[in-house]
Specification:
Distance between the termini: 14 Å
Shape: globular
Organism: Paractinoplanes globisporus
Strand content: 15-25%
InterPro entries: Isochorismatase, Isochorismatase-like_dom, Isochorismatase-like_hydrls, Isochorismatase-like_sf
Keywords: Hydrolase
GO molecular function, one term: hydrolase activity
Number of helices: 7
Structural class: alpha/beta
CATH topology: Rossmann fold
CATH architecture: 3-Layer(aba) Sandwich
Largest sheet: 6 strands, parallel
Protein name: Cysteine hydrolase family protein
């Protein structure tokens, strides 16, 4: 495997609305545009369920009853960062981008060995995906300012203490500078 892909995770309108940060979407849009312009595949990951959410057990504390209530509210990726022709959209059924999706098949098919993570929430999809991707031997980069969490302390601890054990943690500016310096390929 020889490539890099940008994962844009759980940036759906209903989720973005719960994490108010007016600078988030423009910053993420800049990363997406630069990556796309440099030939880096953009893979959008969204959470989704069938009508009635039959894939969610009532015993699941994260989704459980909330998933059944949210089925009608889960909607498309926020229009400010919407996929463009050629981008890939993957639907997951749990917190990790890998669980219940074909993400690993897509990454292998594209010969991706370096995954750049962004999304909402740091303590949810980003953490779960990072852990699973590390176990699958992907090289990992987390764009700290392209991740959001409702708990600033949890966000800080994950980015400063937990994630660096398995990933390079950087900012969008430094990532974009590196992409420019390497001709678009991180």
């Amino acid at each position: 495997m020889t490539g890099t892909a940008l994962l844009v995770m759980d940036v759906q309108e209903a989720i973005v609305a719960r994490y108010p940060d007016p600078d988030y979407l423009p910053r993420l849009r800049g990363v997406i545009d630069t990556a796309r312009g440099g030939g880096v595949p953009i893979i959008y990951v969204m959470v989704g369920f069938r009508p009635g959410a039959p894939e969610v057990s009532a015993r699941n504390k994260v989704f459980g009853e909330a998933a059944r209530r949210m089925v009608g509210q889960l909607n498309e990726i926020h229009p400010d960062v919407a996929p463009q022709p050629g981008d890939i959209v993957v639907t997951k059924r749990r917190v990790s981008a890998f669980t219940g999706s074909d993400l690993e098949v897509v990454l292998r098919s594209l010969e991706i060995d370096h995954v750049v993570l962004s999304g909402i929430a740091t303590s949810g999809v980003v953490l779960s995906t990072l852990r699973q991707a590390a176990d699958l031997d992907y090289r990992l980069t987390v764009l700290a300012d392209c991740c959001l969490d409702n708990d600033p302390e949890v966000h800080r601890v994950l980015l400063e203490k937990v994630f660096p054990r398995q990933a390079t943690v950087t900012t969008s500016d430094l990532f974009l500078k590196g992409a420019a310096d390497s001709g678009g390929h991180g």
